[in-house]
Design brief:
The protein is α+β, with helices and mostly antiparallel strands. The protein contains 16 helices and 11 strands. Helix content is 52%, strand content 13%.
Length: 542
């Protein structure tokens, strides 16, 4: 029996195709095809809903399609940011080289004017939640840092430094359609999150300062302006400064403001945003805020907004993970059945969807409190407000911290479970963006204060206010809407843990108490999210 050329062409041929799944995924609209998100928007925006809804419907196809393609292309390992330290004539320029796709995406995202006075807070919030579904993509960290820079300048208007008003206009409203980009450089090699350990020195120079020393974790290395913490010569107090990357007329010449970028770090995630190590050699810096309150300014304003944004990002990550895992489970058949028709897979898909909706609901509820309290930043634990307002400010402070550690930890778990729905294809980065987003959320878990640091802060905060805000009242107010049994359970647990050596010397007892505190915070915040989720589902909207 002879084999013909036709036999060769057909022998062993596999006609299986992913085209249907890919087409369905590419045709998804991240807002139109997410009814729960629309329901949350309607509940929290009230009379603004119709206008915001129409604007988001118009915006969503761009982020779901065009910007998503750019994000995927800019994530390729061979185009990751790198340094070009010298030009052809041996001039030190420290150019941060980034791919064209990232620059196009950045221009589009910043061109939306998300922090402009022309855009409402809720419209910006929803648009940012959609943009976060791209992953870091080289734009979301810059966006968050720019938000913090704007808030800082608005909080401390300064007539002595007219340059700051110009910077505010460039970052918030844009100039000739171009928006400047902000960054925040606070960590040093010896301290990390321990800002009091900063050694970067600020030397007075008339009304301005000159910076000398090193910053070790400088994300958004390509930014136009940065918020930098340093100690003024002869002082042990950390102060806050705004530092231009280039002085007027020097950006085109690539002549930096007396500092050097030593290298770009190789990170596990958020690889598209360049994180550098900076050496300051007399960089011009503008002081902002009280000179002896730099840590309170930096943490209370800039880091508070960053931590708040991380919660929004995790909601976006999980919504995308849930949507794409469900889509694949409806497409893919194994052993004669669709993935979704296996109880084990169906149960995982349900858990992923619940986590995504719960995290989204919690993010909306916390942001709503933030807006209702008129965007409070840096309230501290003491204030002149009436007691009930002080309690609400404290609730917001702790909820932002709880959301940061809770949503990032669960985000890692949810992304991992979603990847497992795809099996082997789930780890193929040309097949899915979920592995990239998984790495991004792992990094977000460490940025702006790692878990142990924030768990410690929450414990100290609740202990310090117990005289005017008893633990039972705190639990009752935060979990307003939960069953009396749930409130009672968490109240008893909290009161018990506050008497335990959670922050004591290392011993069997203190380690056990510390582990229980970790579990308590996770469970307590999930209970808050469950209340938020129930409020949306029971709203009767859509």
């Amino acid at each position: 029996m002879s084999i013909t050329s036709q036999d060769i062409d057909t022998k062993g041929k596999n006609s299986y195709s992913f085209d249907e799944f890919v087409a369905n995924r590419e045709n998804l609209d991240w807002y139109r095809d997410e009814p729960f998100l629309q329901k949350a928007v309607e509940k929290f925006t009230g009379s603004e809903f119709e206008q915001i809804h129409e604007r988001i419907l118009s915006f969503s196809p761009t982020v779901s399609s065009k910007w998503n393609r750019l994000a995927v292309q800019s994530a390729r390992p061979e185009v990751r940011p790198h340094m070009l330290h010298y030009d052809a004539f041996n001039h030190r320029i420290d150019r941060v080289v980034r791919p064209m796709e990232t620059q196009l995406l950045e221009k589009g995202v910043f061109g939306e004017g998300l922090f402009s006075s022309q855009m409402t807070a809720w419209e910006s919030f929803v648009k940012r939640m959609l943009i976060h579904q791209l992953g870091e993509a080289g734009v979301t960290c810059p966006l968050t840092c720019t938000h913090g820079l704007i808030a800082l300048m608005e909080e401390f208007p300064d007539e002595i430094h007219p340059e700051l008003q110009e910077i505010l206009m460039q970052t918030k409203e844009g100039v000739n359609g171009e928006f400047a980009i902000g960054a925040q450089f606070m960590s040093e090699i010896q301290g990390g999150s321990d800002l009091p350990a900063n050694l970067l020195e600020a030397v007075p120079d008339g009304k301005n300062y000159r910076l000398y020393g090193n910053k070790f974790f400088c994300s958004v290395a390509h930014a136009d302006y940065s918020v930098v913490t340093a100690k003024i010569s002869g002082s042990n107090n950390v102060s806050t400064f705004i530092v231009p990357s280039w002085l007027p007329g020097n950006k085109e010449k690539e002549k930096r403001n007396d500092y050097q970028i030593n290298r770009i770090k190789w990170k596990m995630g958020t690889a598209e945003v360049p994180t550098g190590e900076f050496q300051y050699n007399g960089a011009l810096a503008y002081p902002i805020g009280p000179k002896d309150k730099g840590i309170a300014v930096a943490v209370g304003i800039v880091l508070t907004l960053s931590r708040l944004e991380i919660g929004i990002a995790c909601a976006g990550f999980m919504l995308r993970a849930s949507r794409e895992a469900n889509l694949y489970s409806e497409f893919r058949s194994v052993f004669g059945r669709k993935i979704k028709d296996y109880p084990l897979a169906a149960s995982k898909l349900k858990l992923i969807e619940n986590a995504a909706q719960r995290t989204t609901a919690g993010a909306f509820k916390i942001y709503d409190l933030f807006l209702r309290l008129e965007k409070p930043l840096n309230p501290g634990l003491k204030s002149d407000h009436p007691l009930e307002i002080r309690k609400q400010l404290f609730n917001l402070r702790e909820l932002i911290l709880l959301q940061k550690i809770g949503a990032t930890k669960e985000g890692v778990e949810v992304l991992r479970e979603a990847i497992s729905v795809f099996a082997g294809h789930g780890v193929m980065e040309e097949f899915s963006s979920l592995p990239r987003i998984f790495r991004d959320v792992v990094v977000n878990e460490q940025w702006e204060g790692p878990r142990n640091l924030l768990l410690t802060q929450i414990y100290r905060d609740i202990s310090r206010v117990a005289d005017w805000y008893p633990p039972f009242d705190f639990v009752r107010h935060v979990l307003d809407g939960a069953s009396p049994e749930i409130i009672q359970t968490f109240s008893v647990q909290l009161e018990d843990l506050l008497q335990r050596p959670v922050l004591g010397e290392v011993s069997e007892g203190s380690m056990e108490a510390a582990m229980e505190w970790d579990v308590f915070c996770s469970s307590f915040f999930k209970a808050y999210q469950e209340v938020a989720l129930a409020e949306i589902k029971e709203s009767g909207i859509i």
